[in-house]
């Protein structure tokens, strides 16, 4: 499951009103960008939507920042205000930033949210950028091209090189994982990047996941979401 900062975690205001839909009515996921500085807060976006636009709440269902952190907006089944007349049928995910600001970690999280939506819906939903539904430049050329290409896994991040690794594995892919972990601030003091996925590496993997809010209790294998969390920790450590 995707780790998501709840509304209480970013100080959300209470919505003035809300209407809900069902998974049977959800048909797609729509990617947006905020078109503002990547440092803007989720609360500032909510304030603009409620006070500037006069909306009942923040318009998006979810938001994702450059570090790959996901934030709950209106949530999975609350009708958004992001792409009329598709707000009931489509889940809106907003990248916080401008065209070209999206990091591999951010794309990995957007893809993970899309995959989670499919899991909850029990079927494959459409992938759309805002400009695919309305006359707009949103979500910028970079994210629009990525979405239209199908959110390909090989364009998400170098973290894909570590997906599928498990405790006991050896080789260059394990070394890559270990170097990323160390650069993310999770030391391997005994063995370092020795190319062997042992207890020390598993402990560092778990620590990296926990740093991104994961509730999982394993570090002995690298799932797609585990790789996304490790890359998000790496991006944070590098100041991206």
Explain the layout of strands and helices.
Blueprint: E1 4-5, E2 28-33, H1 42-52, E3 62-64, E4 70-72, E5 90-95, H2 104-121, E6 126-129, H3 140-148, H4 172-183, H5 199-211, H6 224-237
Parallel strand pairs: 1-4, 2-5, 2-6, 3-5
Antiparallel strand pairs: 3-4
Helix pairs in contact: 2-6, 5-6
Domain Peptidoglycan recognition protein family: 2-134
Domain N-acetylmuramoyl-L-alanine amidase: 14-140
Biased composition (Low complexity): 17-26
H/E series: EEHEEEHEHHHH
The largest pleated sheet is described as: 6 strands, mixed
The strand line-up of the biggest sheet is 1-4-3-5-2-6
User: Which band does the percent of strand residues land in?
Assistant: 5-15%
Count of separate DSSP helical elements: 6
Structural class: alpha/beta
What distance lies between the first and last C-alpha atoms, to the nearest angstrom?
24 Å
Quaternary organisation: single chain
Q: How helix-rich are the residues, as a percent range? A: 25-40%
State mean pLDDT (0 to 100 scale): 90
Rg, alpha carbons:
18 Å
- Shape, principal axes of CA atoms: elongated
Stretches where pLDDT is under 50 for at least 5 consecutive residues are 154-158
Can you count the beta strands? 6
């Amino acid at each position: 499951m995707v780790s998501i900062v709840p509304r209480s975690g970013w100080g959300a205001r209470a919505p003035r009103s809300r209407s809900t839909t069902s998974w049977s009515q959800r048909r797609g996921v729509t990617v947006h960008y905020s078109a503002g500085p990547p440092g803007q807060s989720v609360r500032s976006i909510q304030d603009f939507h409620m006070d500037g636009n006069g909306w009942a709440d923040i318009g998006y269902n979810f938001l994702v920042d450059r570090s790959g952190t996901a934030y709950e907006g209106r949530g999975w089944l609350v009708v958004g205000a992001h792409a009329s007349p598709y707000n009931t049928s489509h889940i809106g995910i907003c990248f916080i930033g401008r065209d070209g600001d999206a990091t591999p970690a951010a794309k990995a999280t957007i893809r993970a949210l899309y995959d989670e939506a499919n899991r909850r819906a029990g079927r494959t939903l459409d992938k759309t950028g805002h400009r695919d539904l309305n006359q707009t430049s949103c979500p910028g050329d970079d994210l629009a091209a990525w979405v239209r290409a199908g959110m390909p896994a090989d364009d998400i991040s170098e973290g894909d090189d570590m997906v599928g690794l498990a405790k006991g594995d050896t080789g260059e892919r394990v070394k890559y994982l270990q170097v990323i972990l160390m650069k993310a601030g999770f030391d391997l003091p005994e063995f370092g990047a020795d190319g062997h996925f042992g207890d020390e590496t598993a402990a560092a993997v778990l620590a990296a996941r926990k740093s991104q809010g994961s509730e999982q209790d394993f570090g002995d294998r690298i799932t797609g979401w585990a790789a996304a969390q490790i890359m998000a920790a790496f991006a944070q450590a590098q100041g991206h």
